[in-house]
Amino acid sequence: MHNLLKGGKLYRYDYDVDLDFFIAKSRGGTVRIAYLDPPRLVLHRAYFLLKNDGFGAYNLFNNNCEDFAIYCKTGLLSPRIIALSRSGQIASVFAAICAIISFPYSLVLTSISNFVGGLALCYVLYSICRLLSDIGYRKDARRVGV
């Protein structure tokens, strides 16, 4: 494990979390609503895909290492046309951009004097965007076998 990390940090995902915990966890890409499959099935998917080059070409936004891990852990995929990424970190970046862009509008809606209200509204928008992109919440996600 030490050689794999090369001085970096090891991060752990939490799966099958409830909605309150998901929203409270502000750092995207660390929690999932989706159920975690048994380790035997997770390893079967990973070995099969690695052996058969079956997950496709790497793409930072549409098919990255986090997407691979999420599929192996849950067996869930969503259509590429709709899904920007299954990656929580990528989705969080886009959610943050949406919240920042909407910030001036939130100040108008909550009155300019209510800066805290504007920030709270931005956080709500950020959380909604993260939730809508979560593979466990998405209605278009399907269980796909290898």
Automatic annotation (TrEMBL):
<dbReference type="InterPro" id="IPR007053">
    <property type="entry name" value="LRAT_dom"/>
</dbReference>
<dbReference type="Pfam" id="PF04970">
    <property type="entry name" value="LRAT"/>
</dbReference>
<feature type="transmembrane region" description="Helical">
    <location>
        <begin position="115"/>
        <end position="133"/>
    </location>
</feature>
<feature type="transmembrane region" description="Helical">
    <location>
        <begin position="90"/>
        <end position="109"/>
    </location>
</feature>
<keyword id="KW-0472">Membrane</keyword>
<feature type="domain" description="LRAT">
    <location>
        <begin position="1"/>
        <end position="81"/>
    </location>
</feature>
<protein>
    <submittedName>
        <fullName>Protein LEAD-SENSITIVE 1-like</fullName>
    </submittedName>
</protein>
<keyword id="KW-0812">Transmembrane</keyword>
<keyword id="KW-1133">Transmembrane helix</keyword>
